[in-house]
Design brief:
Blueprint (H helix, E strand, L loop, with lengths): L2 E11 L5 H11 L3 E6 L5 E8 H11 L7 E10 L8 E3 L2
Parallel strand pairs: 2-5
Antiparallel strand pairs: 1-3, 1-4, 2-3
């Protein structure tokens, strides 16, 4: 199994729409670990690590987000997996 890590920035109307908590659910469904948080710039920042197929599916979901979100862009930076995460959490 190929493990990947993605650092993701999601922009648009992505705060106050349940994005972080839905991201936890979707990431967990795909066997991913890492974290999600709001940024001061009104974006959502994510570090997701896990199976390549799960990362790819999660990134596709990020382009959609929860029903009331309006995603404008998803930027992905690929990083070397660290293996330090044990679950997917909301980071404050």
């Amino acid at each position: 199994m190929t493990v990947k890590q993605a650092h993701i920035i999601v922009t648009g109307r992505v705060q106050m729409v349940g994005f972080r908590f839905t991201a936890v659910s979707i990431a967990t469904e795909h066997g991913l670990v890492g974290w999600v948080r709001n940024t001061r710039g009104n974006d959502v920042e994510i570090v997701a690590e896990g199976p390549a197929e799960g990362i790819d599916a999660f990134i596709k979901w990020c382009w959609i987000g929860p029903a009331i979100a309006l995603v404008e862009d998803v930027r992905v930076e690929w990083r070397k997996p660290t293996g330090k995460f044990t679950r997917f959490d909301v980071k404050y």
